Structures are given as C-alpha cells and as structure tokens.
Amino acid sequence: MSRRRFPCLGLVLALTASSLAASAVAQGGEPAGASTGGGFAPPPACRYARTVLGGDPLHAHADLLLDTEFGLPPTPDPPDLVSVRAAGFDSDHLVREIVLSDLSALKRDARAAGLALDVRSAYRSFTYQEQVFAYWVSRLGEAQALRVSARPGHSEHQLGTAVDFGSRGGPAPWDEEDWGRSQEGAWLAENAYRYGFLLSYPAGEEERTCYDYEPWHFRWVGRDRASAVQAEGVPLRVWLWRHMPPR
Ligand SMILES: [Zn+2]
C-alpha cells in the first residue's frame, strides 16, 4: 500500500457564488496542519469550497476525506459495482464488491437480531449527485440543502462504499423524526463498525463533520480502519484529518 496518499491536490477552485459564501459555516479552526501541544490538529472549520483531491479513489477510498471543501472530480463508475441484493437486501442499489462480504454479514446479523434493514441509497455518480442536490435545493432551498446534501463531487456515495440504510416497509429515514432511535438505526449505531461501517455524520457533531446528523448514512472503510476510528471516539472526518490529512 502506498504511503503517499495524496500526491496532488490538483485543481483548487474556491466557489465564489455569494449564496454559497453566505451559507458558509463561520467558526474558528486551526490552520491546516497545525499541531496543538503534541496533540492532534483538529480539522479546519467547515467551508463551502471546492478542492479536488488527487489520488485514486478506487484504491484510496478509505483514506479520502470528503466534506464541503474536499471532493472528487467526476469519476468513471467503479468497475466492480454489484447490487446489494447479493448481500441479502431487496433492492438493487449498487456498492463496490469489496463492501459485499461485510455488508452481507451485517445484514445477516441484523436479521438474526430480528431487524428488517434495507438499503435506500448506495453508489451515486457525480452526475446523479447533481440531480440529488438539485432535488434538495428545490425542496428546502439552497441554504438548508447545503446542510443536508453534498454537492456533486463531495458525496461519499461517489466512492461506491457508502450506504444509506432504512427500515424495511418504513418511510424514508430522512423523513423520520430521528431514525437513529428506530430499532434498526439504534442497532447500526452500536454495531456497524464491527462490519467496517462508520456513521459519517453523528448527532451533535455538525461543526466537525460539516453536515447535519444523518443516522442512516454509513461509509465502509474496512473493519481494521473502522475499529481504529471507533477507538479514538471521533467522527471519520476528524480521524482522517489526524492521520492522513489531504494537505
Ligand atoms: Zn448517504
């Protein structure tokens, strides 16, 4: 595995649209790379910008910090996409094949616990994310859409390793008051990391994750990485900034 994770940040394009600037989360943050008394530097304050990451998202998927600033260029569909039906779900959303074994185990154990998990979204291309973001803008207005939906290029779903779960037969989890309190949501919050999945946007962490609480959204990083992040007790964005910052 290459130790050189982000050889090139490539295109850096700060968005100047006044609507985005007006929506930026203004808060104090350490300069990138700053160290605090031998401790870890916190991630920078969330801002709406577009810094395109270099590197290969197919191989470095678990190392990529995607937020409201750092994102991916338009990328081809991963060549190893498979339907989540292969993991026992009743839908045909797509994930990369590398996720399948852990996703199957998660589904199997959730079912054994009497839970009816389903998958509401998984892989989304850059182009599809444009439609998703436009939908949320039309539904909520741009300022709120920015809090709940990633702009194209900034979604973890483009990696093919992120999954939005739901309760089978229930409403969309994002239309519920707090799906994290459902049996399925609570089980995932407790157990998903054992299968290599992390809750990217936990409650009360908006200033560090850059997005509102999303109890349904999990990103697969593999079991070893998930355990390491879990052990430090911080959101993935914070962990990645500590251990493999994109600059
Ligand atoms: Zn999601």
Describe this structure in words.
This protein has 247 residues and is α+β, with helices and mostly antiparallel strands. It has a single domain (12-243), classed as Muramoyl-pentapeptide Carboxypeptidase, domain 2, CATH 3.30.1380. 30% of the residues lie in helices and 13% in strands. The protein has helices spanning 18-23, 97-112, 126-140, 142-148, 183-191, 206-209, 223-232, 236-243, and strands spanning 12-13, 50-52, 70-71, 81-83, 94-96, 117-121, 162-167, 197-199, 217-220. It has a 4-stranded antiparallel β-sheet with strand order 6-7-9-8. It has a 3-stranded mixed β-sheet with strand order 1-2-3, with no helix packed on it. The longest helix is centred in the middle third of the chain and has 16 residues, at 97-112. Residues 1-37 have low confidence and may be disordered. It binds zinc ion (ZN). Residues 121, 157, 162, 164, 217 line the site of zinc ion.
Low-confidence stretches: 1-37
Name the hetero compounds present: zinc ion
**Distance N terminus to C terminus?**
19 Å
- CATH fold topology: Muramoyl-pentapeptide Carboxypeptidase, domain 2
Estimate nothing, just give the exact number of structural domains.
1
Mean pLDDT: 86
- Percent helix range: 25-40%
Strand content: 5-15%
- The helix/strand class is alpha+beta
What is the C-level CATH assignment?
A: Alpha Beta
Please provide the count of β strands: 9
Give the overall shape, derived from the CA principal axes: globular
Strands of the largest sheet, in order across it?
6-7-9-8
User: What's the tally of helices?
Assistant: 8
Order of helices and strands: EHEEEEHEHHEHEHEHH
Q: What Rg is obtained from the alpha carbons, in whole angstroms? A: 17 Å
Second rung of CATH, namely the architecture: 2-Layer Sandwich
